[in-house]
Structure formats: C-alpha cells, structure tokens
Amino acid sequence: MQTAEPEVVATLYDSPEGQFGPTLFGGHLHWGYWDAETAGASFAAAADRLAEIMIERIRIGPGQRFVDLGCGVGQPAAKLARATGCQVDGITISGSQQRAATAMAEAEGLQDRLRFFHGSALEIPAEDASYDGGWFFESIFHMGHRAALLEAARVLKPGATLLLTDLPTLPTTSDEFRDFVQEHIHSVFVAKEDYPALMAEAGFELVEIEDISENVMPWLVPKLTEALEEHRGTLVEMFGEETEKMIENWIFLFEYMSENLGYMVVTARKK
Ligand SMILES: C[S@@+](CC[C@H](N)C(=O)[O-])C[C@H]1O[C@@H](n2cnc3c(N)ncnc32)[C@H](O)[C@@H]1O
Fold this sequence. Notes:
By secondary structure, this protein is α/β, with parallel strands linked by helices. The chain has one domain (6-270): Vaccinia Virus protein VP39 (Rossmann fold), CATH 3.40.50.150. Helices cover 46% and strands 18% of the residues. It is built from twelve helices and seven strands. The chain has helices spanning 6-14, 16-24, 43-56, 75-84, 95-107, 145-155, 175-185, 195-202, 213-216, 220-230, 232-239, 243-260, and strands at residues 65-69, 87-92, 114-118, 131-137, 156-166, 204-211, 264-270. It has a seven-stranded mixed β-sheet with strand order 3-2-1-4-5-7-6, sandwiched between helices. The longest helix has 18 residues, at 243-260.
C-alpha cells in the first residue's frame, strides 16, 4: 500500500476540521494516555500526559538539537524545549500548522530555541548527522515508514535516540479498514512485528517497543465525545448545519480506529 503524496496529506490538516483538532486536544494533535488514577482526565490533559511520557524517554540537554518530524502546531516541541533546554526544529507538511506553531513560539518567547519549517519529513532541510535526537509523534503512518525512517537516520547523529508513537495493526485489522484510512486520512499502518526489520534496514538499533494500547484505545471514543460536547459552541460557529454530521464523522473514525489498531511507543538508537 502506498502513502499519499505529502501535499495531499497537507489538505487534511489545512481543512477547517483539521485545524479544529488542536482545540479539542489542548494544542496537541495526538491521542492521550489514561490509567485508573487518571480516568477522569480530559482528552487535552491526557494528550499532555502522553507528551510528558515521550519527553521522559528522551536524553537531550541545553545546546543540543532535536528534530520533531510531523510537528503539528508545535505544542509537544515547545514542551520538550522548556523541559530540557534543547533546541527543537519542527517540520510539518501543513502551512497553517507551521504558521500557528511559529506564532506560538514567538508568543512564548521561545523563538531562539524553537523553529518550525513548512516542508516534508521525507526531505528534511538539514545536513547529515545534524541532530542529537528526534521523534515521530503520531505522524509516521502518513509518510511511509521505510522512507521516513531512512531520512530520519540520515539527519541523526550516531547514538542519537529516535522515539515514535505509532498505531500498529492487529491480527484482526480488516482490509476494509485499511482501504478506508488510506482514502480518508491518508494513512498506511504497519504491524508491530514489522518494526525490527524496518529499524534494521534504516540503520537503527531497536531498543524497546512499549504496547500502551490499553491506556489509549478504549478511552478514545468516550473522551472525544466529552471534548466535542465541551466545544460544541465553537463547532456550531465554525460548521453551522454541518456540525452534527461532523461530530458523527469524528466519532465513527475514532471508533473504527479503536477497533482496528493498537498504540505503542517505540525507542530506537541510531547506529
Ligand atoms: C496526527 S498529527 C501529529 C502532530 C504532532 N506530532 C502532535 O503530536 O501534536 C500528524 C502530523 O504529521 C504531519 N505530516 C504528515 N505527513 C508529513 C510529511 N510528509 N512531512 C512533514 N509532516 C508531515 C502533519 O502535518 C501533522 O502535523
């Protein structure tokens, strides 16, 4: 299965619906992490927690450079820059996201350490071995795993950590689902079992795969439903009569994805 051209993926995030995503998820554009203690957490709070879980796994410090591949509107990158003191370059294929992220960095006074580029993570505007660390935070399935990992390997220094969150297919994932997500959200998902070979081919040592499906997937629909309800007023302003249809589409997609995918955090090291 082929991923869509990067410019096609951009239309998804530049659309009004795509631009509303960060509002629902508290400035993040990824899912959340819940457990028994945080069962009451909103989608936004749980998305922020997942960003913290990612940051805990990164070894980087002041003066070092990190690349965020598919950076959304920059919230995870800003959190990482604040927590570690490193410099972050974010790349997104969406022009509207790049503009929003740049404005946020300036508003937060982080523009010296936080830069955002409009472009493709398959052609990173950086020399070989430029970065001390990097991540694909819920983004690699839009890019094509093999090509994206090869390009990440090119720009990372030997020994650098590469972190990913990804949504692995399950033994029960249907062909119908694969066709649906390829057509509607320009995504091609792979299985957890594909990872060792993908990493080895790209020049990474696979350090760990943490399956956190239980902390993500069953929570998605109820928490999304709450978030949509909370933001209903804004939704109606933006989408008018289309609002109910839009809500239905979001819920259908999240339900379908929860049934057909897992969630994992992957740590790798550039050889
Ligand atoms: C689900 S969002 C995740 C955003 C962000 N990482 C976060 O966690 O908030 C997927 C991101 O991947 C980006 N993306 C998809 N294909 C891309 C490509 N070829 N190059 C750069 N960014 C890409 C999208 O623009 C979007 O920002």
